């Protein structure tokens, strides 16, 4: 019989380690192309939802507005995206991929395919499919837990620092 708590703990560490190592090695694979994984991630997301407002992009990627803004700044200076004001609300900036980015994304797709093939080397297709199914089921379960917590009002609120009190000057 499998010791359940130890097995669960090992599985969690393994998922975390594989994810961390994959991110690290993927960054190295993309380095010769002059783009970081974070930039690629944002660029790929925008390419699927071209014209998305910058604030909505930050929300959907679960990244801070400032962080997304900095990533978009770098992508814009590289010629991969452009920002245009929303036609209805000029305060809203919509982000669009450029023609240059579309060609670049094709190059990245080829590198990604090679990278994924190299990390799956020696693993039977059925094992990969079983692992994928298991991870997708875990993802669905986690999302369901998130929905349940949100509907119960148990969603954690961000911790904020109390504002410092002003001292009154003695007259």
UniProtKB/TrEMBL annotation:
Residues 8-140 form the HTH marR-type domain. Residues 148-171 are annotated as: Disordered. Keywords: DNA-binding, Transcription, Transcription regulation. The keyword Transcription regulation applies. Gene3D superfamilies: Winged helix-like DNA-binding domain superfamily/Winged helix DNA-binding domain (1.10.10.10). InterPro entries: HTH_MarR-typ, Tscrpt_reg_MarR-type_CS, WH-like_DNA-bd_sf, WH_DNA-bd_sf. Residues 162-171 have a biased composition (Basic residues). It holds the Pfam family MarR_2. PANTHER family: TRANSCRIPTIONAL REGULATOR, MARR, TRANSCRIPTIONAL REPRESSOR OF EMRAB OPERON. This is MarR family transcriptional regulator.
């Amino acid at each position: 019989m499998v010791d359940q708590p130890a097995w669960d703990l090992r599985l969690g560490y393994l998922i975390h380690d594989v994810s961390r190592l994959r991110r690290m090695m993927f960054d190295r694979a993309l380095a010769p192309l002059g783009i970081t994984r974070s930039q690629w991630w944002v660029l790929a997301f925008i390419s699927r939802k071209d014209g998305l407002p910058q604030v909505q992009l930050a929300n959907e990627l679960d990244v801070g507005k400032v962080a997304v803004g900095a990533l978009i700044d770098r992508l814009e200076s590289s010629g991969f995206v452009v920002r245009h004001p929303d036609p209805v609300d000029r305060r809203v900036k919509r982000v669009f991929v450029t023609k240059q980015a579309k060609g670049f994304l094709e190059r990245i797709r080829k590198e990604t395919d090679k990278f994924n093939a190299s990390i799956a080397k020696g693993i039977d297709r059925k094992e990969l499919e079983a692992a994928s199914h298991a991870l997708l089921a875990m993802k669905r379960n986690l999302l369901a837990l998130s929905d349940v917590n949100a509907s119960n009002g148990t969603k954690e609120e961000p911790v904020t620092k109390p504002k410092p009190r002003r001292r009154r000057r003695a007259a």
